[in-house]
Design a protein that fits this description.
Elements (H helix, E strand, L loop, with lengths): L4 H7 L10 H7 L4 H5 L7 H16 L5 H10 L6 H11 L47
Helix pairs in contact: 4-6, 5-6
Length: 139
């Protein structure tokens, strides 16, 4: 079973009078002690300001990627690099809106033709011929 880290932390009873120590409880739950004792650091004021600015600009322009957002923040007077903007995008759970690859979806209206050479032993010349009907748009 997959339990979240917070759920596993709640399962540990830190009372020192218990028979099972914290390290043993962590071991039984397959949770490292450092994960149990970890306290996340608070975000500083600049990071919160950047998150707010990114959220506002992304709401009005959802097609902006991290490069253009970094340039936007630089124009606003916040010298940040692209990697920091990528991290902040990840925290906010956003990504630029752009067309993604759509190569693996099959159109249900298209007929699927069987492979006619399956199991056929090809042992002489001119026994099997092939052609390609790929369409290329003229430019």
């Amino acid at each position: 079973m997959n339990f979240s880290v917070n759920r596993l932390r709640q399962c540990i009873e830190p009372d020192y009078r218990k028979k099972i120590s914290i390290s043993r409880q962590c071991e039984l739950l397959n949770l490292s002690r450092s994960t149990y004792y970890y306290k996340p650091a608070k975000a500083d004021d600049l990071t919160l300001k950047l998150l707010r600015l990114i959220d506002e600009e992304y709401t009005s322009h959802p097609f902006l990627g991290t490069r253009r957002m970094a340039k936007y923040l630089e124009k606003m007077g916040y010298p940040v690099n692209r990697k920091r903007v990528q991290r902040l995008y990840y925290i906010l759970g956003i990504e630029a809106v752009y067309p993604k690859k759509n190569t693996s979806k099959v159109c249900p209206e298209n007929k699927i033709y069987p492979y006619l050479l399956k199991g056929l032993s090809i042992d002489c010349c001119n026994q099997v011929w092939s052609t390609d009907i790929t369409y290329t748009h003229p430019r």
